[in-house]
Specification:
15 helices, Rossmann fold, four-stranded parallel beta sheet, 44% helix, 369 residues
């Protein structure tokens, strides 16, 4: 599970191994699928092994197991919970979140999928020598849901990609022209799953437009747009259905999956970044927005306050009126924006991939002692 894309576990692996592999006194083995196996080369003290097994598959349980056993590693780090059930070597695992336990979603609606998920994650947590969680909130969830002793879990915060930066006016104009964004806009990035709470965000956005259109409303927001990135999910047609039902086709811009450069430019060009999730194991996007010096409004729930501190404007993600009120407060008050941008600069200093790699290495060493 290795990738240099901006999201998910692939990025986690990419950032950590980039730092791990500078330690030439350790013999490393990295297990990869295509196309990453052919795309990346590593130093001579790093052995890459081709697996050819889809994630969460039977092949991962059987074929990957044989390959793992052949390598005879002193320690394996499964950077997600999908460890082969019959692997008997020493290993640790990272739990990024327990979203499926709270919001299984439509993909997990069959009994056998739920059974498989619970069986595999319980096995990984139960057999691991040490469990890494990416936030204290996830640590508490793991301990509560799976009766895990606190001594077995350790929190290591994620870092922020160095690629995120303050965007020039020319870059802002370039991305707006490319994606045909003609008005000031607020931004959401990410997937469209149930726990991302996009339907309520759209309903809150409708309230904002209604307030702006009143005679005593803020005229500066009458042309406001909501830009949403991400691939439409056939399991969640509610997003596009809600846009149609609320008559928001002209005000909501669905720009699809965007590349790294355009994503950074979108962060920089946005008036504000909005993060309406009902659950997050960590929540990188608000930190990425802060690094681009874009003010953030977000849910006061799960790991988000832990990660964002006092550097965002918070709302209740289940209260559409509160969501619209807090978004409006940020949009209309430049002093609030400036205050949050300043606090954001301090907040992001707490998150470093160098620190994450060093803390993870210490866990490796403690397990091997």
């Amino acid at each position: 599970m290795f990738s240099d894309s901006f999201t998910g576990i692939g990025r986690y692996n990419f950032e950590l191994t980039k730092r791990f592999f500078s330690h030439e006194d350790i013999e490393w083995v990295i297990f990869m699928n295509e196309p990453e196996y052919s795309k990346y080369n590593f130093p001579s003290h790093v052995k890459k092994v081709l697996v050819k097994a889809p994630h969460y598959s039977f092949a991962e349980q059987v074929k990957f197991l044989k390959i793992l056993n052949k390598e005879k590693c002193d320690l394996v780090h499964f950077t997600h919970f999908n460890a082969p059930l019959l692997y008997r070597g020493k290993f640790i695992t990272t739990i990024h979140d327990t979203t499926i336990s709270f919001y299984p979603g439509k993909k997990m609606n069959s009994w056998w999928r739920k059974l498989a998920y619970n069986f595999v994650i319980k096995h990984a947590i139960g057999k691991a020598k040490q469990i890494i969680t990416v936030s204290e909130n996830t640590k508490k969830d793991v301990e509560k849901l799976f009766s895990t002793p606190s001594s077995k879990t350790q929190t290591v915060w994620n870092g922020i990609g160095e690629e995120f930066h303050v965007v020039s006016d020319i870059e802002k104009q370039t991305v707006k022209q490319k994606l045909e964004i003609e008005s000031p806009f607020m931004l959401y990035t990410g997937n469209w799953r149930e726990h991302k709470n996009l339907v309520r965000l759209l309903q809150a956005f409708k309230l904002i437009l209604e307030k702006s259109s009143k005679p005593d409303g803020p005229a500066s927001l009458k042309d406001l747009q909501l830009v949403i990135t991400g691939k439409p999910d056939p399991y969640y047609p509610e997003v596009t259905e809600t846009i149609d039902q609320l008559g928001l086709k002209d005000s909501v811009k669905l720009v699809g999956l965007v590349g790294q450069e355009d994503l950074i430019r979108l962060y920089g060009a946005a008036e504000i970044y909005v993060f309406p999730s009902l659950y997050e194991g960590f929540g990188l996007p608000p930190l990425e927005a802060m690094q681009c010096e874009t003010p953030v409004v977000a849910s006061r729930i799960s790991a988000i306050p832990e990660v964002c501190g006092d550097a965002v404007q918070y709302f209740n993600p289940q209260d559409i009126e509160d969501m619209s009120t807090q978004i409006l407060k940020l949009l209309l008050h430049d002093d609030v924006k400036a205050d949050l941008i300043g606090k954001g600069k301090k907040q992001i200093e707490k998150f470093s991939w160098d620190r994450a790699a060093n803390e993870t290495l210490k866990i490796y060493q403690s397990v091997l002692e």
